Amino acid sequence: MEINVLKDYSDLSVTVADIVEAQLKEQPLSKLILPTGSTPLGLYDELVKRELDWSHAITFNLDEYLMNPDHPYSYHSYMRKNLFDRTNIYPDHCHFPFRPAIPFEDKMYTYNGIDLCILGIGSNGHIAFNEPGSSFKSRTRVVDLSLQTIQDNSRFFDSVEDVPKQAITMGLGTIMESKKIILMANGTNKLTILNVAMNGEITETVPASILQNHNNVEVYYCD
Ligand code: PGA
Questions:
Q1: Of 63, 134, 141, 198, which one's alpha carbon is 20 to 30 angstroms from that of 101?
Q2: Distance of alpha carbon 44 from alpha carbon 82, whole angstroms
Q3: pLDDT of 137 higher than 90
Q4: pTM over 0.85
Q5: What average pLDDT does this structure show over 98-127?
Q6: Cβ atoms of 47 and 18 closer than 8 Å
Q7: d(CA 75, CA 65)
């Protein structure tokens, strides 16, 4: 699969913002899947700067820790701070995986399913919190985080002990039903896993490799 290499982080953020903007303009009632983490911060800043109309958009986040959603380090808080509170999106239109998972997934697939899914990739090849070994058929569910992910994400917390050990995540099967998928990756530490995932064997050991089976995926990388 082709990896589009962009010149810097700003170029990455602008390029993916162009795709989201085009989607929202072409189809105001778009259903989007959104990521958290460091990589999309520039994308969210860029989208806010463009003052787009989000009033018809419906969003679903990829995952959330099993923790109080009002905790300052939850993904609910991250999304409010970095995107939702800075746009005219309706809070009722912003969804996070919840239990039981079946009504959550039903909500995603009403009105024709997901139009655009934006993903990051973990240093172990995870997408959302689908850690290595996750079934390609997996649906939204509670998962244990891998030690690698706990270590990687400890930079967002006061200490590694504070990182939740479990999360609720969309499954790989869930994500693959999106009509279009954009994978964003930033940093030389992601390059090896990105290459393995996009051009190596398609295997549950590298969850992101499932994207090779999707017919509408674009991959954007900058170091
Ligand atoms: P990052 O996380 O953007 O913080 O590197 C990506 C991910 O783990 O999916």
A1: 198
A2: 6
A3: yes
A4: yes
A5: 94
A6: no
A7: 7
Hey, which residues are catalytic here?
A: 63, 124, 126, 131
Q: What is the pLDDT of residues 142-151, one digit of tens each?
A: 999 999 999 9
Residue nearest to ligand 1 atom 2, measured at CA = 37
The Cα diameter of the chain in Å comes to: 45
- 169 secondary structure, DSSP code: E
User: Does any ligand 1 atom lie closer than 6 A to the CB of residue 37?
Assistant: yes
* 44-56 confidence digits (pLDDT tens): 999 999 999 999 9
- Beta-carbon contacts of 208 under 8 Å, excluding residues fewer than 6 positions away, are 119, 121, 125, 126, 127, 183, 193, 194, 197, 198
Tokens of 213: 């089976």
Alpha helices in the chain (DSSP H): 9-26, 41-49, 75-82, 101-109, 147-153, 172-176, 191-199
